[in-house]
Predict the structure.
Amino acid sequence: MKKYIEGSMAVADAVNLCRPDVISAYPITPQTHIVEDLSQLHADGKFKGQFVNVESEFSAASVCLGAVATGARSYTATTAQGLLLMAEVLFNIAGMRLPLVLTCANRAISAPINIWTDHSDAMALRDCGFIQLFAENNQEAADLHYMAYKISEDNSVRLPVMVNMDGFLLTHAFEPIDIPTQEEVDAFLPPYKPEYYLTTKHPITMGSMVGEDGYMEVRHYLEEAMKNAFPVIEKVTNEFKQKFGRYYGTFVDSYKMEDAETVIVAMGSVLGTIKDAVDLMRKNGVKVGALKVRTFRPFPEKHIREALNNVTNVAITDRASSVGLGGILASELKGALYGYTSVPNVTSYIVGLGGRDITVKTITDIAGQAGAKFDSSKFVELDKEFMKKGDEYLKTI
């Protein structure tokens, strides 16, 4: 069923269709609409589980930890400072191998105070042990939740999943969204049946003290679980494609890269703008393509190397910066390419911090600086052309 709804509402509907037993969250811009919509579904009797109101994001994560430890399918959502306040608990959830789905409405981290889009929050928690998936649009953001639960709850993985969607650009944007029926979701996502959980019938210990004789082994098992996620993510993505007919790439996804000499790499909603820029440059004879990194954790080194084979120039756009290092995606991608037989010319660009606009002109300028050969004077009116294109589209919906 098609609905013309806000991205936050699409995510709330998707989460509800996954039949979580427990939802606990604390409102924070731009995540608020997600939990407001879920709260309304609960008030209307459409969400049958427990909705736990708490006084902070730390408490929300703590409630979810307790819930998943007892075998309950659980959910939370947050952003920016809220994600950082959860950090201690998120490390525990991952370290205890507890499946959970968390939506991060990506937003800049203070200071200075800024509520607009970038990836600083998710990048700050990239090493906590969560699988991290990035959505390009609202349909993908909603669909990722069905897949996230199935990936998270797989016994060979048992790791929490963070679904990232750009704040405001996706959370507050209205798009036509295909919402499956409850029966369709039930057929794709079976009830959660944990192998290990807290129960008085078969007592076990979780999160116990481990000394120097065992801590490294436990962290090694966590690393192995993240590696185990590769085939599971691929399997679940293909099952979703077969069931619902939608596919967004597994770990990466290429756009017009068959003969590309210059490729722009990115994550999140900026891919839409990048694809528009690629289309325009292609129309003017420029051999350029785009590579979407959909799965940031586990980091798909092999898939990135294969995708960028025989490419001359690679421009990486980061919507976050590691202070003192620079682009995070760029740094990890360079590491993936190090020592590879065919290493392209790689350049790094920090874009869109704190919600700054990334336009088609921004992308064509990046392509030009990265080595793409074209006459930039042809692209002076790019922004006006694509704004007109957007206005025409809005009249049709």
Notes: Residues 215-244 form the longest helix (30 residues).
